Design the sequence.
């Protein structure tokens, strides 16, 4: 049962050791595992741009007799409730185990993302933010809440900032964009057609597009600048957990870059905003004053 339940994890973990042709089959399955369970062997071969014998060899390399059994085990893997939560979590984990796994996964993913981010790209992204006349943060699905968080951070810099999670509003704003506008588009996969189209329209109208997305994705290729976000989880299968944490942390990095670029003369403005909240809070009972 362990082998069946973890078929997707096995495919992901063995990508590097597969030959070029079999890796194409693995990537085709991982791109859309639910669709793969409905593919015929000919369809999967076409999707992966390989021959049908290559698909059969791929099946044998994972210890299954043929493509029908592979599809059955893939469907069973997807049906496991734990698989939709996190790659690390097993169906029989106790609270102590899954708590440690989720925290451990988040910490490891942040460390990996930090090592992979290009500091020169961070600097160029800060330049775009500093120079923008207006900034629009766009996100859909799980990334929508990240876009709203970005609006909360960046309005403090005396910039015209909005956040939108409605694709129709996103498209309308892109259609009336001008030079000097910046669209920050947040998408974990970078494969959402609507967001790629919005980026294209915005750029055609003279705006700049900064994306936080997967490297070499359609969105990254359409953007003025893309901050490549590593892919610690497959959000086609799992709940987007560490992906949002990485996105939020990258936005914190950019906000810090803008603050430092503004210099010490900007600090009184930030302090004024923070102090404006004092009257809305009950006093701290532990405060000796």
Sequence:
């Amino acid at each position: 049962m362990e082998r069946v339940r973890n078929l997707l994890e096995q495919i992901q973990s063995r990508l590097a050791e597969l030959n070029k042709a079999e890796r194409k089959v693995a990537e085709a399955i991982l791109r859309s595992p639910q669709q793969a369970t409905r593919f015929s062997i000919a369809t999967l071969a076409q999707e992966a741009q390989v021959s049908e014998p290559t698909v059969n060899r791929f099946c044998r390399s994972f210890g299954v007799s043929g493509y029908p059994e592979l599809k059955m085990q893939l469907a069973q893997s997807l049906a496991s409730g734990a698989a939709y939560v996190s790659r690390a979590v097993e169906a029989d984990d106790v609270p102590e185990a899954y708590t440690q796994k989720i925290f451990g996964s988040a910490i490891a993913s942040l460390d990996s993302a930090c090592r992979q981010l290009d500091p020169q790209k961070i600097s160029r992204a800060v330049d775009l933010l500093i120079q923008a006349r207006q900034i629009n943060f766009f996100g859909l699905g799980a990334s929508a809440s990240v876009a709203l968080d970005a609006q909360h951070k960046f309005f403090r810099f005396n910039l015209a900032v909005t956040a939108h999670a409605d694709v129709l509003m996103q498209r309308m704003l892109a259609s009336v964009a001008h030079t000097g506008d910046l669209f920050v588009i947040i998408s974990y996969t970078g494969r959402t057609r609507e967001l790629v189209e919005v980026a294209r329209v915005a750029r055609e109208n003279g705006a700049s597009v900064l994306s936080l997305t997967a490297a070499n994705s359609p969105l990254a290729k359409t953007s003025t600048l893309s901050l490549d976000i590593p892919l610690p989880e497959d959000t086609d299968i799992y709940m987007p957990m560490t992906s949002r944490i990485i996105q939020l942390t990258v936005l914190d990095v950019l906000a810090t870059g803008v603050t430092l670029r503004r210099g010490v003369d900007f600090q009184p403005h930030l302090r004024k905003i923070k102090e404006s909240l004092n009257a809305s809070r009950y006093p701290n009972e532990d405060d000796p004053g």
Summary: Residues 124 and 268 are 26 Å apart (CA to CA).
